[in-house]
Amino acid sequence: MALKEEEPESSRSRFAGGGPSWDPRMEIGVPYEQRPVNEYSALKESTLYSWAELSPGSFFMRLGSLCLVTFTVLAAPISAASFSPGKDPLKFVLAAGIGTLLLVSLVVLRIYLGWSYVGDRLLSAVVPYEETGWYDGQMWVKPAEVLARDRLLGSYKVKPVINLLKQTLVGTGALLVGAVALFAFAAPVEEFVHSFNGAPTAASSKPMMRREDLLKLPAEVRQDDDLAAAAAEAANGRPVYCRDRYYRALAGGQYCTSDDLLN
User: Fold this and answer.
1) InterPro entries per the record (predicted)?
2) pLDDT by residue (tens digit) across 235-260?
């Protein structure tokens, strides 16, 4: 344990051009893993958080790989269970894309929160720590030398990472909002495409009959689902038999009102 608390000689001269810039014993009161500089080192060595210290090209390449794996393995199968790729290709792609962007945004947000926390502790002159547990929290005022070192790390190492993560969050958030908006208008877009290609849509496949004629078909609608749907729409959601005195009497007038009769 004593070896863990000792700082190597090279670290003493890291920021002072060969001479010791601070005494390692200044931080001896704070547990090793709770010192901001050691939290920063642990963050850099983490598998996930270390992505943020890569070059922008490498960072976005890893995010792209994560998007591809998420879309292929997780989002696409779930989306296919709700929207058939053959019948609703636009909704299928948009739903899978929304799920992928949501997961990637959460990953970037988690990385951002970790770096933001460490950055705040590096730049702050007073940091909290726990000696043995949550019940004995203490506040540590950094000596001037330690504060200068930590702020140097926070300003030149952590802040650029945080700015990159902020920009990434804004980008993924904008893409997510755009995908949700497109999904909301997917049905009108598909109808427009079908009408442009001359393919029949659900609206155009309804029987072309007058409203008065549709309201007088209580017997025929039992054998034709499309006709029944059109008749129900013409009746404003009321039972079709309400529009006919004979069938209304047979049904006992249930769910009908006096205004349902046309004659």
Assistant:
1) CGLD27-like (IPR009631)
2) 666 665 566 666 656 555 555 666 55
66-80 tens-digit pLDDT: 999 999 999 999 999
d(CA 204, CA 237) in angstroms, rounded, equals 20
Q: What is the residue whose two structure tokens read 């890569």?
A: 54
Rounded Cα distance, 209 and 234, in Å: 10
Please count the structural domains in the chain.
2
Beta bridge mates, 126: 141
Local structure of residue 156 (DSSP, 8 states): I
b/e for 50-65, b at 16 or more Cβ within 10 A? ebbbeeeeebeeebee
Whole-number pLDDT of residue 146: 87
The CATH number linked to 99 is: 1.20.58
Please say whether the beta carbons of 104 and 63 come within 8 A: yes
Distance CA(116)–CA(67), nearest Å, equals: 24
The verdict on 148 and 233 lying in the same domain is no
